[in-house]
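Q: Please design a sequence for this.
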């Protein structure tokens, strides 16, 4: 009996790990997302929550920017409000203000109806922003600039934390509530422009939850509500074991349903990305007719895995890495607000379009375009110095292998940008820092540049003060910047480029470069 049970358990685990089952489950969940967002609530922009949520939203209906609400920020006993994940761009965006709300898509496994990002992280985020904005409105009144509209807003401004009562206990909600004022203090003390968001947001934020366990027949109407809805759309159907669905609404389908199938993509996707999945969805999920469900699933499993490997191999060449197209695409790069420095992906550095936007380009390890490689080789052959170049290549590998090299390349990057920013102060040059995705390596180099050459008010240091800063930085005298200064500059980056998400190792290398010099 035990051997039979073990064999069944192994079979279920194998079917759960099966690539075809996962992709079919994702596709099935995406149909639910499509139904809610396009038929029930078409008035709201749709944002995928990184990283799992991006698999469930067709790029044709998704906002070009994603959001990042991390489930671990809401884990019981570890609740927090992260300035790095303040998602300021969501509140600052025109689409959010014009529609009066938004839809955020995510999923979860483990047999839960919604991820912790929905039940805890987003409720905390809403409540913290509501409290910070309430203070900003009150502060306007204290300065004598308020009017009757502000008084009316304050009358309805809800600063409570709203959590799903079927998921979060009242005891836990009370513990979270006790932390909110401290989180709001942190937000108010940061460099994030709360007053501008306070002027755009006319009603307080409030999370609304929609799951597959409670399908909606009629669309909810929030037009007269006293709040701005943040609709948390959980894509997957909850299953008791969290890993399979046998029977119910999905019975009879030629695959085994996997809840939260997109989670932990490194363990199953074989290099497939959400963008590649949606681009090749029809080819990956094509079924042959006239076969039994089990035979069809086995056949499609092998064919699907072969197709994924072929697609990944075809799209791993440098020419295919530019998932966001032209260098002029608005999502390829973003300037750090108030500076001449931009962070972007590989496509943002494509010549000759890149020279329309930038005067210099720093490539942090992404495959080189032929024109850039040729220019670099000519400069090396002619023994041109960094001051005479407009392009530099920093050979920083991705992942753990690149961390030591990142530390070695920071001085080269700083030497390259110094004459561009400081010696031509009458017209500082526009500089692009890019890697393949504009998420990690390029963010680390950009952070080093901001720390070295910009003061806390985003003003460029003069050449003399920069030289003095360098002199101090190589002596035993106390450094002119702190870890908090570096964190604030990281905040400038992630506020301007929401996709930026440097690893802990990258941030540690930058901190060490500036703070560990004795």
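A: Design:
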């Amino acid at each position: 009996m035990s051997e039979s049970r073990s064999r069944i358990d192994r079979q279920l685990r194998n079917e759960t790990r099966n690539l075809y089952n996962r992709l079919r489950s994702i596709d099935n969940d995406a149909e639910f997302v499509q139904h809610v967002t396009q038929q029930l609530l078409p008035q709201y922009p749709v944002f995928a929550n990184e990283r799992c949520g991006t698999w469930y939203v067709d790029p044709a209906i998704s906002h070009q920017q994603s959001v990042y609400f991390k489930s671990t920020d809401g884990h019981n006993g570890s609740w927090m409000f992260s300035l790095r994940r303040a998602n300021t761009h969501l509140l600052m965006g025109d689409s959010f203000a014009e529609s009066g709300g938004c839809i955020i898509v995510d999923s979860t496994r483990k047999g839960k109806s919604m991820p912790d990002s929905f039940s805890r992280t987003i409720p905390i985020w809403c409540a913290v922003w509501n409290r910070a904005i309430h203070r900003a409105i009150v502060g306007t009144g204290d300065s004598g600039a308020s009017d009757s509209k502000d008084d009316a807003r304050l009358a309805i401004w809800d600063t409570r934390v709203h959590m799903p009562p079927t998921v979060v206990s009242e005891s836990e909600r009370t513990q979270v509530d006790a932390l909110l004022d401290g989180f709001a203090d942190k937000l108010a003390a940061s460099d994030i422009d709360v007053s501008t968001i306070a002027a755009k947001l006319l009603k307080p934020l409030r999370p609304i939850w929609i799951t597959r366990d409670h399908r909606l027949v009629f669309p909810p109407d929030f037009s007269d509500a006293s709040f701005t809805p943040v609709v948390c759309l959980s894509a997957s159907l909850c299953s008791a074991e969290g890993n399979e669905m046998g029977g119910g609404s999905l019975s009879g389908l030629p695959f085994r349903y996997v809840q939260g199938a997109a989670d932990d993509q490194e363990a199953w996707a074989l290099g497939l990305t959400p963008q590649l999945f949606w681009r090749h969805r029809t080819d990956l999920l094509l079924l042959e007719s006239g076969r039994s469900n089990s035979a069809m699933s086995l056949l499609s499993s092998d064919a699907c895995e072969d197709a994924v490997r072929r697609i990944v191999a075809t799209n791993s060449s440098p020419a295919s890495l530019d998932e966001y197209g032209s260098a002029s695409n608005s999502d390829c790069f973003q300037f750090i607000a108030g500076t001449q420095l931009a962070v972007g992906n590989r496509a943002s550095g494509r010549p000759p379009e890149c020279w329309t936007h930038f005067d210099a380009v720093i490539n942090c390890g992404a495959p080189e375009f032929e024109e850039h490689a040729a220019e670099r080789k000519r400069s090396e052959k002619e023994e041109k110095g960094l001051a005479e170049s407009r392009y530099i290549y920093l050979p920083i590998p991705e992942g753990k292998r690149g961390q030591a090299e990142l530390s070695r390349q920071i001085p080269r990057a700083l030497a390259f940008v110094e004459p561009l920013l400081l010696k031509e102060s009458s017209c500082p040059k526009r500089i692009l820092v890019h890697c393949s995705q504009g998420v990690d390596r390029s963010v680390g180099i950009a952070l080093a540049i901001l720390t070295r050459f910009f003061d806390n008010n985003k003003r460029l240091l003069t050449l003399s003060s920069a030289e003095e800063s360098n002199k101090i930085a190589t002596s035993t005298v106390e450094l002119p910047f702190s870890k908090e200064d570096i964190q604030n500059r990281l905040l400038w980056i992630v506020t301007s480029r929401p996709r930026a998400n440097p690893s802990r190792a990258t941030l540690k290398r930058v901190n060490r470069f500036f703070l560990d010099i004795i």
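Q: Thanks. Anything notable?
A: The radius of gyration is 25 Å. The beta strands are 46-48, 102-106, 205-210, 228-234, 333-335, 341-344, 360-363, 391-393, 431-434.
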